[in-house]
Amino acid sequence: MMKYLTAIASAALVSIGISAPAKADLKDILDAGTVRIGVPSDVPPFGFLDENNEQIGLDVEVAKMIAEGLGVELELTTVTSANRISYLATNRIDLTIAAMGATPQRALQIDFSSPYSALSIGLFGPEDSGLESLSDLGDQSIGVARGTTQDIELTERMPDANIQRYDDDATAASAYLSGQVELFATANIIANDLSKRDPDNALAPIEIFRYSPTHVGVPKGNPELLRWVDTFVFYNLNNGRLSDLTEEWLGQRLPESFPSM
Amino acid sequence: MNYDFRFSSLLAYRDELVEGVLLTLQLSAATIVIGLVIGVVVAAMRTGAPGPFKAIATVYVETIRNTPLLVQLFIIFFGLPSLGLRFTANEAALLGLSVNLGAYSAEIIRAGIESVRKSQIEAGHALGMNGYQVFRYVILFQALKSIYPALTSQFILLMLMSSIVSTIGANELFHQASFIDSRTFRSFEVYSAITLIYLCLTLVFRSVFLGIYWSVFVRRPAR
C-alpha cells in the first residue's frame, strides 16, 4: 500500500512538474527523498541514546517505520520538549515524534496525527498476584507517589484501599521492591523499567486507570502529509505493529479500542 | 500580595489532622521513653563499664550521631527487609527515632554523669552502697538533674524531627499535611495550620517537662 501511495505521489509530481512551495508537504518530502523527523534523545523509553550513542526508543522506531512507508531516507534531529513545536513551526523538521500529547493550545501552532501509542497509569503487581482487576482487591498494601494522577484515581476508585503514600515514584518503587508494599500504582513506563531490571520479579498490570495518547506533530498547512500520517497510523494500528512496538518499549499492548483523531 | 486565604478547605480534612497529631504524640512519647532508657544504659556503659562494653557503646553513639537520620530510617525501612527484617512504616519510624534519640541522649547523660563530683561517689561507697546503688541513687539522680534542660530540649527537637518519618510513609502530622496539600493545593493554609499545631505541641511538651522537673527534682529533696 505504501509503495502504491508513493508511486501515485511520484507520478503526480512528475506529471504536474511543480515543486517547492514554502512548506514541506508530502510531495516535497518525496521529491527531496529525505524525511526530517525530530525525536527526543533524553526521554526513555521514547527516544534516548544507547551505550553506542545511537538514538533508540519507541519514537525512533516509529520514525524509521514512517521513512520506510514513505520510501525515503530518514534524517533524525534531536528535539527537546521546549523546542519540538517551534522546530516544526519554523520548518526545520517535517515531523515531530516526541512522546507528545495533543492539547488545544499546541494545536494552534501545529497539527496532530491520530495517536500512535500511549502512556498509561494504573495498578501493577507481581505476575502471580492473582488479581484480575481493582474489584479483586482486598487489604493488600499499595505504594503510590503522593498527589500524582494515579494517587488521585486510586483514591477515588478505592477509597478504603490500604494506600501507602510516598514523596515520589522512586521512593514508592523502593517500598515495592523491598516488599514494604505488595502493589504499586504508577506509570506503565516505570513498571516496565523495573521489570526489565529484574525480570524474575516483573510487574504485571492489574488495572489501567487512564491512557495518555502520544501523537505525531505535523506543521500547519500540510493537509496531505497529515492525511498520510493518519493513514499510516491507522494501518499500523490495525495490523498490530504499533501495539507490538508499544509492548516492546512501554511494557504493554495498546487497548483494543484505541481512540483516533 | 493578593492571596485569598481559605482555611475552610482544611475543615474537610480535620479527621486526618487529628489522626496525624495523635500519631505524632504517640510516636514522640514512645520514642522519648525508649530513647531515655537507651541513653541511660549507653551512658553508663561509656562511663563505668569494662572495655568491650565501652567500645560497643562508643561505636553506637558515634555511628548514629555522625550519620543523617534520614539515612538511618531508609536503612531500617528499605534496607533491612533484604535481610528478612520487615517493619511497618510506623514501627520503622519508632525504631529509627528511638535509636537516634538514644545516641544523642546518651551523650547528654554522659556529660551529666561526668559532672558528678568524685567525693559524692566516694561518700556513697562509704555509706555501704554497692556499685549499682551508687549509680542509681547518687550519680544518676544528680546527673539527670543537672542536664535536665538539655535533655528535654533534645526531646522537643525529637518531636519536631519526627516530621521526617513522613518520607517512609508513617502517617504522622507532617505526612497528613502533605496529603491534604496534595488534595487541596492550599499549601499556605495547610502548612501554617500545622506550624500552629507543632507550636502548641511544643508548649504542651514544655509544660509537661516542667511539671516533671518540679515534682521529681524540686519538691522532693534529693534522697
UniProtKB/TrEMBL annotation, chain A:
SUPFAM superfamilies: Periplasmic binding protein-like II
Signal peptide per UniProt: 1-24
Domain Solute-binding protein family 3/N-terminal: 34-253
Gene3D superfamilies to which the protein is assigned, alphabetical: Periplasmic binding protein-like II
Family annotation (InterPro entries): Solute-binding_3/MltF_N (IPR001638)
UniProt-listed SMART domains: PBPb
Transmembrane segments: none
Pfam family, one: SBP_bac_3
Entry keyword set: Signal
Descriptive protein name: Transporter substrate-binding domain-containing protein
Automatic annotation (TrEMBL), chain B:
Residues passing through the membrane, by range: 21-45, 69-89, 146-170, 190-216
Membrane topology annotation: Multi-pass membrane protein
Record GO terms (molecular function): transmembrane transporter activity
Oxidoreductase found in the keyword field: no
Single Gene Ontology BP annotation: amino acid transport
Compartmental location: Cell inner membrane; Cell membrane
Top-level lineage group: Bacteria
Domain ABC transmembrane type-1, chain residue ranges per copy: 21-209
Cited SUPFAM superfamilies: MetI-like
GO cellular component: ATP-binding cassette (ABC) transporter complex
Keyword Transmembrane part of the UniProt annotation: yes
Matches recorded under Pfam families: BPD_transp_1
UniProt keyword terms in alphabetical order: Cell membrane, Membrane, Transmembrane, Transmembrane helix, Transport
Protein family per UniProt: Belongs to the binding-protein-dependent transport system permease family. HisMQ subfamily.
Protein name stated in the entry: Amino acid ABC transporter permease
Species the sequence originates in: Psychromarinibacter sediminicola
Lineage per the UniProt record: Bacteria, Pseudomonadati, Pseudomonadota, Alphaproteobacteria, Rhodobacterales
